Amino acid sequence: MAKQGDLILRLRAQTAQAQKQLRDVNTQLRAMGVNAKKTGREVGGMMGGLGGFVGPTVALYATGRALKEVTTQFAGFERTLKLVGLISGSTEEDTKRLGVAAKEMAIELGKTPEQVLAGFQALASAGLSSNDVINVGKDTMKLAAVRAGELGTAAELTAGAIKVFGMEASRSQEIVSQFATAVSKGLKFRSLEDLAETFKYAAGTASTLGLELSDTLATITAFSDATLDTSIAGTAFRRIFASLSQGGPKLERDLLKVGIAYSDVNPKMNTAVEILEEFARASLTAGQATDIFELRAGPALAGVGKIMREGKADIRGWRDEMVSNTARVNTEFTSLMIGMRGEIDKTKAAWNLLKLSIGEQLAPPTTDFLRQLRTIIAGDFGEFMRVKSEITARETSRGRKESDISRFQERHPKATVSGAHDLGAPIIINVDGDIRVDRVTDRELREMAGG
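Below the sequence we write its predicted structure tokens.
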């Protein structure tokens, strides 16, 4: 009976302790509500005349289902951002830059920040660094929009041009416009996915031979039109140009039989467009082409020559258009976003960005609440006290740092202070347009503030 009595007393003590801790957490939840309302008032003020509507609307997100929505949205954004950073091998600072870039691009693209990050993830998965991801991300997503393609496919194509053909990421607008032109010219290229199917077979051989992207795209477009099969087009290109690059006495004899000198179709001396023009001039039959390049590749080459002679495949004109019309995707995307549909997409993007910003502000207290709730559910009261102590110390430090910043700005009215307010987090102080002190520590800030 004594042991049973001791057990009952311990259970009562633990229950009382848990109730007290739940009351502490409940106090934090009320504080979250106050913070959300404050955020609503601040956002409302920024929205001018809409303040009376937006403020209460934003404050509403502090409760119930809406609170869950914004915090869950931010949690998803944060998780995807970390994943992109890991895939691209980014530092913590570079990962933050990816997050800022995703938010900045969202409204212009009419996408949610999470959708922009999905595009970043596809580019990172294709092997691009964080800097390249930011540089080419916007143009890649515009390409997907104007050619109704998947972000992943657009990312693979753009990354292929950069990594396989060695093109600079700064030429992303030119790169995506060349792909867009290929899709618009090719009868069989009804989407980016069709183009990607041919491109994956041809890209390696083309880059090895030093062919330009525009030259390659114009050529495989012709092969696709002639064969009406995207995979056969790519493999035929690879077989023919690999054979031509190897050369040899037998190939030279076979070419002379149909009136072609090897020097006129040697990839080391001629562009792909010039080589196809020479074969078209020779009017090879399917049988003759097959004798030289074997089954599949031969008939495909004969078919290309036929449609070129009939004026159905102006590969030189296609290539020249790819080279000259470097702003094609940007122009088409701007046109696409004009009108009611575009404004709806941009407005939805702005609203999603607003919700993400609210979720970002509510994330720290929500995380703290969940950490404490988890320890209560697990019955680990020692861990609860440790977590609570950590949170209290951080909030005390945050308050002290904000006080230091306020006193510094009182002493330096023209200065601006930016950066995180967390303990130990660096900030940047800008005085009269000149960054005098960079990455100020808490102690340095206190000294500058006269503390």
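The CA atoms of residues 51 and 127 lie 45 Å apart.
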